[in-house]
Amino acid sequence: MSSTYTLTRLSAPSMVLNSGSQIPAVGYGLWKQQGSEAKDSVRCAIESGYRHLDCATAYQNHKEVGQAIREAGVPRDELWITSKVWGTHFDNPEEGLDDILEELGVEYLDLLLLHLPVAFKRNPEDPKQLRGLPVDHDMKYADVWARMEKLPKSKVRNIGVSNLTVRALDELLQTAKVTPAVNQVEMHPNLPQKKLLDYCKSKGIVVQAYSPLAQGQHENPVVTDIADDLGVSPAQVVLSWGALRGTNILPKSSTPSRIRENLELIQLSDDHMRRIDALARR
Known about the structure:
Layout: E1 7-9, E2 14-16, E3 22-24, E4 28-29, H1 35-48, E5 52-54, H2 62-72, E6 80-85, H3 93-104, E7 111-114, H4 141-149, E8 159-162, H5 166-173, E9 182-186, H6 194-202, E10 206-210, H7 221-230, H8 234-244, E11 248-250, H9 256-261, E12 264-266, H10 270-277
Parallel strand pairs: 4-5, 5-6, 6-7, 7-8, 8-9, 9-10, 10-11
Antiparallel strand pairs: 1-12, 2-3
């Protein structure tokens, strides 16, 4: 069947955060990418049209990302760079931010997130250790957020959170002076989190969807049928669904053809959206 839909490239459109900043609607995710793979993938992504890179201290690839940015030659002000403070630096997020900036080789971030709602006690003998650390139960998340609010604008333009539930966000907003710009969570047709998405929209918080392809588990008869009908890949269908829900999607791939393909999204019909929405209820 021939498609009546037209592919629309989403490399230029953006979303407006509650701060007024405009963030590219599709970002390139860097989870689980290490060494030369990370560098080559980021360079490919930038050359393919991505202008939004989603990094994190815990991914341990800032240096490779920074090298790829310099090799790609795109001016810093044309890129949106996000990173995340790990729980070892919740007592001093500015220290964590400074480490990130040094590793990336940039002067500022567009967005800095608290990676988890959990703080960890640092190992004084190995301050760079990220895993296997005890939880700091005395650290209050509201106090951590208050420290984030005081970060200098010269170093970071926007601040947000990651992996927070409706209840956690509601508690945070009771004392927050600055509403988080985003809440980055896992979100895809198998885990649509509609209640959380609706709550964030009501508070002016943009939801960023990591693992929008369900870590490779996005293909099923419904998605495949829609993809065949429209002449696109199952991944394009699922990513388009996410974008049309109003989420900031962060697909990840190290395959050049898929990196490029993930920017080519399509307008789905209301029926397509309903059929995909129904997957989680099954």
